[in-house]
Design a protein that fits this description.
Elements: E1 6-13, H1 16-25, E2 29-33, E3 38-42, E4 48-53, E5 62-67, E6 81-88, E7 93-99, E8 105-111
Parallel strand pairs: 1-4, 5-8
Antiparallel strand pairs: 1-5, 2-3, 3-4, 6-7, 7-8
Protein name: VOC family protein
């Protein structure tokens, strides 16, 4: 089974409110915000943007998350370096981490087991 495109863009920032306003000015709508300085924004049916605030001593990061329809049916190919196999997340999905040939880290996200 293959991935099905981009599920999300995860961003870390030093000011989630300013970052959320930036995306809202691009047409994204705030779907929900947490009480720990993070938020999920959507613009139509495409990938969502999740913004989380990090301390000033951490560099802001961007991570693309690829969609996998069924974690149990996903078989990594021989050229895929798995850093972390699928695990349940605290936000209701299953996530795997892989590394590409240039050393970039990618996340694969699947629905939680039903």
């Amino acid at each position: 089974m293959a991935t099905e495109g981009i599920e999300a863009v995860f961003l870390t920032t030093h000011n989630w409110g300013k970052e959320a306003k930036f995306f809202q000015s691009l047409g994204f709508e705030l779907e929900f915000a947490t009480d720990h300085n993070s938020a999920l924004l959507r613009n139509g049916e495409g990938a969502y943007v999740f913004i989380a605030e990090v301390p000033e001593d951490q560099e802001p990061q961007t991570r693309l998350v690829l969609r996998v329809p069924d974690a149990d049916a996903f078989t990594p190919g021989p050229d895929l370096e798995v850093i972390k196999p699928f695990e349940d997340t605290h936000y209701g999905t299953r996530e795997m981490t892989v590394r590409d040939p240039d050393g970039r880290v990618w996340s694969l996200q699947a629905p939680a087991k039903s």
